[in-house]
Amino acid sequence: MVKTIWKFSLHDKLEQADGYLVSTVDLPASADVLSTAVQQGDVVIWASVDSTASSQPKKTRRFAIVPTGGNVPNGGLSPRFLGTVLMQDGDVWHVFAL
Fold first, then answer.
1. At 51, which helix (H) or strand (E)?
2. With contact defined as beta carbons under 8 Å apart, do 70 and 19 qualify?
3. What does the pLDDT look like over 35-78, one tens digit per residue?
4. Which residues, at least 6 apart from 78, have a Cβ–Cβ distance to it below 8 Å?
5. Phi and psi of 4, rounded to 5°?
């Protein structure tokens, strides 16, 4: 199986949670999320995806975007830390896969 790297924005579907934001993204079922960063003002993630992913079913995934000093999500979840992003306005956010 050949894998390729795909990029996904976390800004499309945002909702407010307990001291952080939650982004919902439909990813190919084979997606393995690798990292996060800011690109042109948007928080994005990169994932390794099976090259036939366009024909695969999608899986809805959730990501927490937590400001410095904000609550880290727990609620029975084991969030996986993806990275810290530095916004141009000086805000610092920490991204977790839920």
1. none
2. yes
3. 999 999 999 999 999 887 677 899 999 999 999 999 888 866 78
4. none
5. -130, 165
pLDDT for residue 6 = 94
**Residue in the block written with tokens 């995934």:** 61
| Three-class secondary structure assignment of 27-38 | EECCCEEEEEEE
Using a 10 angstrom Cβ sphere, with 0-12 exposed, 13-18 middle and 19 or more buried, the burial of residue 1 is: exposed
pLDDT for 12 equals 86
pTM score, two decimals?
0.90
- In the numeric block, the tokens 């960063």 are attached to 37
Which residues does 29 contact at the CB level (< 8 Å), separation at least 6?
Answer: 53, 56, 57, 58, 59
Amino acid at 37: A
**What length does the chain have?**
98
User: How distant is the alpha carbon of residue 2 from its chain centre?
Assistant: 23
